[in-house]
Design brief:
By secondary structure, the protein is an all-alpha fold. Helix content is 90%, strand content 0%. It is built from 2 helices and no strands. It is elongated. The two termini are 14 Å apart.
Length: 69
Amino acid sequence: MEVILASAFSALIIAITVLSMIKVLMIAYKRKELTYRKFITYVTAAAMTGLIVASVLPFVYGKIYSLIT
């Protein structure tokens, strides 16, 4: 139960972080500081990194909780 709660809250924080990064990248694209290709690349990289980290978290938290108890 603890692993699920910790993973859910951490995934929420990761999602908020990724959305904030996308907003920053959108601002940079609107100011013509990024090309369209770089914008798409950075958004995809941020989303995929967040997805990978969020999907690995339950296993990491499970290991940590098993070491503690």
